[in-house]
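Lecture notes, continued. The same structure-token format from the folding unit now serves as the input rather than the output. Read the line below as a description of shape only.
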């Protein structure tokens, strides 16, 4: 007989020195560095990492071209230790696309920080798997398949750890016969390294008012396919970026193609979530992009083998919240350390993990716990992360204000001047509206007719979702929570043509009109790839993404 909610047993608790949420580059770097520092000092330190994906790397999605700066600092002999970082960038190209043409921009005009030479094309998921192996060898405990669903506090309001979600909860919220109570993982310090728009990070930022005095965080949605192309089409080490078509001047975004590995090409599209037209579908724009004459030839004779989508932070320097709270800190993309013009954040994620680990280790050595790690905040705002983000701080707001054509030109000039002039230009442009507030009313926007997929180069959303390995237990509570179930049909549909139907890259949201009946809003939570776009872009801020049962969601392989 299943227990009722009122009869739930107490959770078992485990004590650690440091609890880390998220087995991405930031969380794993922090875990490794903590153990390295303890070994150097001849002391013991207990570190645990919880990861909501079914395995380390299952929820990791990135381009990815990485700057090895962070990895060099964390594990200087990473080459000798067999890190899956092999394809060095050999050719770096940047194009402006019209509907039929591709104009290559000379590399000499690009700001030096935009150069990718010396960087590597990788699978970030594979790198995280390798980092997890290094962490485990050092004694870090890693628990994949366990979603951190709740923050734990002491009587003074400081964070003292997390609780993992209960398993085996039915759609009605009641325990089933397979019910297993979650665990409490308590630590002297808790690091949140959940990535962009993490559910616990969002709670903490609001609760401790960490974004007060900062600009609103900005986001993009990155959609990616992994292809195995014909050998004659493969150019190992080629990095190619584009902007322009199929997007109009008022819609920011661009594409990437990265050639690496065994005839692999990562192709992706990033669309800025401050777009205005509610009829835009980021997914369909990506599919349309692949049909460009300069792009489609790469994929002729090839095969798509993977698909995924993820929101990324784009606010940059002026949107970074306070990084510490009583009892812990925000690391990596949970803090917003993405460099938008470079389309890179992994190096800063690793550097933030290193800096956070140093601050926590020093604090624990002094006998401290559950306070603010001010040394981490100072290191992030004055060290390599700051030197990476400050020179590009105006690129995104210039793009948003002046559109793609003029905005990119002004942003490039600003980056050049910030590179040449010691200390930069001295001004920082502000971001204006949060992304959910930028949509025009449907009556003032132009509907878009997208071409039908051909099933060879372009695909429908549900077919592509099947290539993400996504799965959720069907009888679990829906993890996409509506504050008001009436809003999608009563407000979002008449005012914005309910954009959730289009901004979701996994066909989670539908407006279903039964014959002779009223329209209703349907949530296909089983499809969710955990991109968080709905939590960001919903114009009524009516959708909250919460962690489903641990192990659910995508199971990316080689992404």
């Amino acid at each position: 007989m299943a227990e009722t909610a009122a009869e739930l047993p107490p959770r078992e608790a485990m004590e650690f020195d440091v609890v880390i949420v998220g087995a991405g580059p930031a969380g794993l770097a922090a875990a490794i560095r903590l153990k390295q520092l303890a070994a150097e000092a001849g002391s013991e330190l207990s570190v645990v990492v919880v990861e909501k994906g079914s395995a380390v790397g299952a929820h990791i999605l990135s381009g990815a071209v990485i700057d090895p700066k962070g990895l060099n600092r964390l594990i200087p002999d990473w080459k000798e230790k067999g890190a899956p970082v092999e394809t060095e960038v050999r050719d770096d190209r940047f194009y402006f696309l019209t509907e039929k043409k591709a104009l290559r921009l000379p590399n000499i005009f690009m700001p030096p920080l935009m150069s990718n030479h010396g960087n590597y094309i990788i699978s970030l998921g594979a790198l995280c798997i390798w980092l997890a192996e290094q962490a485990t060898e050092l004694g870090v405990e890693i628990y994949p398949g366990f979603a951190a669903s709740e923050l734990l506090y002491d009587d003074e309001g400081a964070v003292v750890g997390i609780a993992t979600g209960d398993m085996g909860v039915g759609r009605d919220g009641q325990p089933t016969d397979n019910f297993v109570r979650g665990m409490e993982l308590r630590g002297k310090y808790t690091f949140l390294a959940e990535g962009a728009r993490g559910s616990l990070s969002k709670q903490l930022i609001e609760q401790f008012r960490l974004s007060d005095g900062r600009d609103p965080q900005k986001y993009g949605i990155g959609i990616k396919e992994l292809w195995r192309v014909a050998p004659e089409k493969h150019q190992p080490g080629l990095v190619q970026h584009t902007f322009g078509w199929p997007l109009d001047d008022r819609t920011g975004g661009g594409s990437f193609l990265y050639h690496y590995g065994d005839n692999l090409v990562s192709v992706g599209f990033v669309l800025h979530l401050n777009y205005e037209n509610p009829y835009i579908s980021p997914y369909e724009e990506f599919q349309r992009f692949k049909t460009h004459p300069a792009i489609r030839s790469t994929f002729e004779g090839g095969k798509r083998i993977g698909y995924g989508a993820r929101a990324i932070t784009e606010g940059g320097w002026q949107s970074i919240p306070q990084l510490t709270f009583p009892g812990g800190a925000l690391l990596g993309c949970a803090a917003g350390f993405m460099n938008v013009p470079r389309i890179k954040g992994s190096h800063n994620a690793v550097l933030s993990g290193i800096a956070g680990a140093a601050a926590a280790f020093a604090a624990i050595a002094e006998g401290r716990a559950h306070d603010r790690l001010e040394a981490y905040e100072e290191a992030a705002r004055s060290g390599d992360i700051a030197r990476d983000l400050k020179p590009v701080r105006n690129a995104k707001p210039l793009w948003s204000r002046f559109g793609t054509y003029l905005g990119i030109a002004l942003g490039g000039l600003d980056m050049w001047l910030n590179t040449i002039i010691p200390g930069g230009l001295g001004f920082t442009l502000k971001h204006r509206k949060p992304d959910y507030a930028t949509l025009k009313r449907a009556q003032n926007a132009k509907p878009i007719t997208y071409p039908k997929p051909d099933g060879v180069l372009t695909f429908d959303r549900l077919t592509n979702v099947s290539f993400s390995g996504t799965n959720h237990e069907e009888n679990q509570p829906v993890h996409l929570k509506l504050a008001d179930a009436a809003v999608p049909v009563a407000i979002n549909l008449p005012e914005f043509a309910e954009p959730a139907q289009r901004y979701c890259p996994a066909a989670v949201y539908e407006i279903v009109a039964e014959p002779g009946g009223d329209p209703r809003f349907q949530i296909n939570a089983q499809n969710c790839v955990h991109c968080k776009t709905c939590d960001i872009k919903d114009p009524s801020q009516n959708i909250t993404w919460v962690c489903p049962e641990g192990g659910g969601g995508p199971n990316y392989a080689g992404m």
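Point for the exam: The longest strand covers residues 303-313.
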